[in-house]
Amino acid sequence: MRLWRSDEVEHMTRRTVIITGGGTGIGLAMAKKFSAAGDRVAVCSRKPENIERARSEIRGELLAGECDLREREQIRRFTAQVVERWERVDVLINNAGAGGRNPIDRDDDGFFEELMDTNVTGTFRFIQSVLPHMPAGNGRIINISSVLGKFGVPASSAYCASKHAVIGLTRALALELAPRRVTVNAICPGWVDTDMARQGMTEIGKVMGLTSDQFKEKALGNVPIKRFVEADEIAAMAFFLASAEAAAITGQAINVCGGQSFY
Questions:
Q1: What CATH number should be reported for the domain holding residue 241?
Q2: Position 220 in a domain
Q3: Is residue 223 part of a domain?
Q4: How wide is the angle at C-alpha 98 spanned by C-alphas 95 and 103, nearest 5°?
Q5: What pLDDT does residue 201 have?
Q6: Per-residue pLDDT tens for 130-165?
Q7: Cβ atoms within 10 Å of 47's Cβ, excluding its own
Q8: Which residue range is the domain that position 93 belongs to?
Q9: Residues 263, 261: Cα–Cα separation, whole Å
Q10: 130, 147, 220, 248: which has the fewest Cβ within 10 Å?
């Protein structure tokens, strides 16, 4: 009978986790969470400065590289780098995405198509790329949607449509991959205290004739707990969904929104 060395056991139990958009905001919080638990983390972003931020702030075993979700070949290349280094992918978190307003009476110059390509098609492409390298029996796919995937807001049809689509994709793939015991779930954040959210408040407030602080106060009026969600709280939910304890949870779109939505 072979006796396993402690370092071999550690290598076997550590997971390989890919987090798209892992260099800032929610993605960075998730990368830190998994890394602190001893997992091997691969993060990608299309912005070099976000890659450098991940490299400077994540202390564990890390692979970080540029990848544009709109480019299939870049997704394949990044996946190949992860597999070459760590042989498999246990957890895929599709976090990267784009946002912005697109009033229906404004020429968007392809904005709708570009946003859908990033938020929906890019998510699908990444899942396709990673699945052949995800072990059957304990694989985890987590897609970051939004509460705007459950209800709409004016002048944000592209974003709302894309986040609704992410939930639909999650539910369909959960059924398709159930025989392989790979779970697929979505997290639907409300307002999260990130740079992207603060930028969004400024842009929306400007349209409404409000300052960023005035719009924030107005937005908090629709959040029962009267505060924004922290990125670490989204990370905690992702960490749970990736755990063995969540093996029976699949096809769900779970709100982390301070009571902003009950659907």
A1: 3.40.50.720
A2: no
A3: no
A4: 145
A5: 74
A6: 999 999 899 999 999 999 999 998 889 999 999 999
A7: 13
A8: 6-192+230-256
A9: 6
A10: 248
Angstrom distance (rounded) from CA 103 to CA 67: 29
Structure tokens at 51: 């890659």
Which three-class secondary structure state does DSSP give residue 50? helix
Cα–Cα distance, 92 to 6 (Å, whole number): 27
pLDDT digits over 15-71, tens only? Answer: 999 999 999 999 999 999 999 999 999 999 999 999 999 999 999 999 999 999 999
Measured between alpha carbons, how far is 79 from 14 in angstroms, rounded to an integer? 18
Chain center to CA of 23 = 11
Place of tokens 């994540």: 58
Q: Is residue 171 part of a domain?
A: yes
Q: What is the dihedral of CA 174, 179, 182, 188, to 10 degrees?
A: 10
Length of the chain in residues, anyone?
A: 263
Residue 125: what residue type? Answer: R
Q: Which residue from 183, 180, 150 is spatially nearest to 166, judged by alpha carbons? A: 150
Q: Extract the runs of DSSP E, i.e. beta strands, from the chain.
A: 16-20, 40-45, 62-66, 91-94, 140-144, 183-189, 253-256
Task: Tell me if residue 159 is catalytic.
Answer: yes
Write the single-letter amino acid at 119.
N
Question: Which H, E and C letters describe 212-247, residue by residue?
Answer: HHHHHHHHHCCCCCCCCECHHHHHHHHHHHCCHHHC
| AA letter at 21 | G
